[in-house]
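Hi V.,

Quick status before I head out on leave. The structure for the redesign project is tokenized and pasted below; the design run finished overnight.
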């Protein structure tokens, strides 16, 4: 009888830890520490010069990218025509040619549009 109870407890704990391992909590980029801080030209140059190395360094990392807003739309904005940022809540006060720093997660380089993609972005204030 005791071995059945121990076996059941091991199975229950195994299921619990297995579920939490396979389905972790959603990342909150806004709350994460910044791994890299750079301007838009530097991060773009890193991807152009050596894409595999830049991907291994920046992909899925939290970045703060600064530059000049070149486009604003309903989903986000573009910095220096090189960094596409999907913003969680867009500030209607943002305008083209404003200087800005954006915190977000790097999801890669888009060869077709020749832009670096950031998601879960927010305006970074020191």
């Amino acid at each position: 009888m005791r071995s059945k109870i121990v076996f059941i407890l091991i199975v229950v704990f195994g299921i619990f830890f297995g579920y939490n391992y396979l389905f972790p909590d959603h990342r909150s980029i806004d709350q994460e520490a910044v791994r890299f801080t750079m301007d838009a030209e530097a991060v773009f140059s890193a991807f152009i010069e050596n894409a595999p190395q830049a991907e291994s360094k920046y992909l899925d990392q939290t970045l703060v990218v600064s530059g000049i807003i070149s486009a604003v739309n309903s989903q986000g904005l573009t910095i220096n025509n090189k960094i596409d940022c999907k913003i969680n809540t867009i500030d209607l006060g943002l305008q083209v040619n404003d200087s800005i720093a954006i915190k977000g997660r790097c999801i890669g380089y888009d060869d077709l549009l020749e832009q670096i993609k950031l998601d879960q972005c927010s305006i970074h204030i020191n």
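Above is the designed sequence. The longest helix spans residues 2-22.

G. will cover questions while I'm gone.

Best,
W.
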